[in-house]
Amino acid sequence: MPAIQLTPAQRKEKRSDAHHLDPVVMIGSDGLTPAVLKEVDAALKAHGLIKVRIFSDDRANRELVFASLSDDLSAAPIQHIGKLLVLWRPMPDKEDAERKDNKLSPRVVKIVKFSKSGNHRPQVNKLRILGNERVAQGGEIKRARRRLTSVKKSAQD
């Protein structure tokens, strides 16, 4: 798989985005192993733009690793400064898993009750609400009712 080619303006933008990042993957004395490739691939899938630190003193070896990483993982080589490499690959779209039953899952709701006099701290309660329940006025939990529709509308359907 060939590396992604970017224009200089695009590379400049990615360099500025990567400035504050810390290295996600570190390559030690063993060099570029399949485990390192797998880790860099996972980091690119998760983050898109990553920094890689190489603990090798040989500059030619670091350039070879940079080129092979970008070619093997079809990523764009953004920057190589010292022992830091910056790689970018567009993040894959995350497919939203549609639920078949269309029911709401349980969730945690935080209910805050303020004191009647403003001198005390508010009481905070975390409650687990099921899909068919709702929080009513005053923090009560009630079962959600089906919405009533008119007879005429249901007859049209």
Concise summary:
This protein is an alpha+beta fold.
The major beta sheet can be summarized as: 4 strands, mixed
Query: How large, in whole angstroms, is the Cα Rg?
Result: 27 Å
Q: CATH top level of the largest domain?
A: Alpha Beta
- Which structural category do the helix and sheet elements fall into? alpha+beta
Average pLDDT: 87
What is the number of helical segments per DSSP (H or I, 4+ residues)? Answer: 4
CATH topology of the largest domain: Translation Initiation Factor IF3
Number of strands: 8
Q: What is the CATH homologous superfamily assignment of the largest domain?
A: YhbY-like
Estimated share of beta-strand residues: 25-35%
Given as residue ranges, the uncertain stretches (5+ residues, pLDDT < 50) are: none
What portion of residues is helical?
25-40%
User: How many domains, as an integer?
Assistant: 2
Main sheet: strand order: 1-2-4-3
Walk me through the structure:
This protein has 157 residues and is of the alpha+beta class. It folds into two domains: 8-88, Translation Initiation Factor IF3; 101-145, no CATH class. The chain has four helices and eight strands. The chain has helices spanning 8-18, 34-47, 59-72, 151-156; strands at 23-27, 49-54, 76-81, 84-88, 107-113, 123-129, 133-135, 141-143. The chain has a four-stranded mixed sheet with strand order 1-2-4-3, sandwiched between helices. It has a two-stranded antiparallel ribbon with strand order 5-6. β3 (76-81) and β4 (84-88) form a beta hairpin. It starts with 7 loop residues before the first helix and ends with a helix.
